[in-house]
Amino acid sequence: MKREEELVWKLIDQDISEPEFQRLQEFFAESKELRGYYQHCLETHAVLESHVAPDGKAQPLPTPSFEPVEETKSKPPAWLGWAAAALIFVYFGTSTDSPSKVSLVSMDQADWRGTEVVIGAPIPDRFLHLKNGSIEMQFPTKTSVIINGPAFFQVLDDQSLEMIEGKVAVNHEGEPGSFRLLTPAGKLNDLGTRFTAFIENLEDSTKVHTEVLEGKIEFVNSFSKQSSIFNAGESLVITGTHRKANSHVSLAEKADQGAVENESEQGTFDQNPNHPKTSIENQAEFKAIDLMLEGNLKAQIKYSMVEAIAESIDQKAMVLVEAEKAFSSNQGISFAEAAMPEIEAMAHSLVEGYVDFSKISLWEASKTAEIAWRENKDSEGKLISRIPYANRLNTPEKGNRLLHNLEQIKLWLQTVHDIHEEKGMGWVSSFGCPEDGKLIFDNRNKKLFAISHAIESIKSNLE
Amino acid sequence: MDNKEQDIHLVNELTKAQPKMRAYLAKILANSSSTDDVLQECNKLLWIKRLDWDPTTIFLKWAYRVCYFQAMAYCRDKSREKLIFNPELIEIMGNESPDERTHSEREIAMEKCLAKLKEVSRTLLLDRYSKESTVEKIARKHGITPNALSQKLLRLRYKLHECIQENMKSNPA
Fold this sequence. Notes:
The complex is a heterodimer of chains A (463) and B (173). With 463 residues, chain A is of the alpha+beta class. Chain A has helices at 3-12, 18-30, 32-51, 78-94, 257-265, 280-285, 288-292, 297-326, 335-338, 340-352, 362-365, 402-423, 434-460, and strands at 103-113, 128-139, 143-157, 160-172, 179-183, 186-201, 206-221, 227-231, 235-240, 367-377, 383-397. In chain A, helix 12 (402-423) runs antiparallel to helix 13 (434-460). Chain A starts with a helix and ends with a helix. In chain B, helix 1 crosses helix 3. At the A-B interface, helix 1, helix 2, helix 3 and helix 4 of A face helix 1, helix 2, helix 4, helix 5 and helix 6 of B.
């Protein structure tokens, strides 16, 4: 057996050291033949595994309802058995022939993927993908349901909605218990109420944030079948490990009663439970930029880096701002003169640092939009939901203060530069030497130019 | 084909494709224990996006693409872990489809090859693949050290694999 073949088997057994793994990667990169060998070995390994699978036990399967799957007696391969069973369950367990009495009553900028639903039409009995926008459905149980995209959901019958992912607001005026929302972590039975839910499908688990606005709901754990009642003004976070059958549920984050009652008095509820309305501070955290970047992972990561840079520059700039406020010259010198070393250092770090500020966009360096709310009212004019959207500002505001601080630093630096010019080239030289001073002057001029260029670039990066 | 017929068609295709999808993922994911989890995510996604599939095209090709992107996402999330291939290698492997022969063809070949092994070797090998046995337990049962057992198993499995490949070559699909 060749060395690389031995490494292949060690990898399959997950019994390979890090240096061996690195070496094997190199072998793979060089040899198509070895990659083919690896593929064949994996298939042999899989056949051996399925050949001796004890009792042909099926692996737990996260079906859309995330119920534990019953053990089957199917023979190998194990995954084929559970996958097929799941698929058959998915299909036959969710399809009905009777036409749905649930209809779509309104839409706002709805962007459907796959099946598209039109206003007035019954909702198809299949999983629907609402990429963006919002829709309102009416159930015959006197239940109005508003869903915000991105969302995956299915109307199971005239009384049940299943959601794998997305945001939903429910207003149920029918018989208590006649409407239920199924989520990957459990079932929410509506006992005559208004509530919101935000279902997040994370890498390892599912998180359901729900908030009761009026009346009460019953939460039933899919696995233990235990139930709990939640009343108006309470919010809970349910987490479930949907990939494993031993899913657990935990209840947490009960909202502050007073704060939520306050919200209720306003007769509104937030469609974005990701930002629970337990306090004004929490509401302030919900920024337009969160909406603008929703679903764009690349931009989110990029922005989080810009935000961190903005924050660190702001910290340093604020020290100077505070110092300027407290500054009182008794020697007839300006703040720029007194703080010259700090100003020069800050400008230097911007120009000679690791960040190319000219690549940053205007929306990343300032606040170009703010949260606005689209309100949905019922036939009596009663507010039933508010949906947030990003409203573009005519004049950008400071936001994370990145652009503002660049302009401020440029201003300080320009002031130092002007004083230098006024006082003569020898001014900043320890020896009063004009040549030294001229060199410093020229270098500062370059920095001023670079900062100005960055500011202008940001202002023109309007993507 | 109406939607219901198309769903049934997709269920058939998806069920048939499971071993190949798993083999494809196992290769990219370095046979990680998370392979089944990622496969399940792929199944879910394929079902959710089932209307995107054109039944006149080869299902497996579409399934591989979905698996590829799910595997990439997994590797990106776990990039700090030890046994994750580098992105370039993942891309190369992602473009290579698994062997076209089916799981049952390989199984038939394996049965023949297992029959050629001495009984003690066969028991050793199958014990190793029994989920309830650890290397330590098997070593104790056979009166050898775990290290010696690992070496022996390595050789046995290599031999078995060579035999399976030979057998499949002489009985092409």
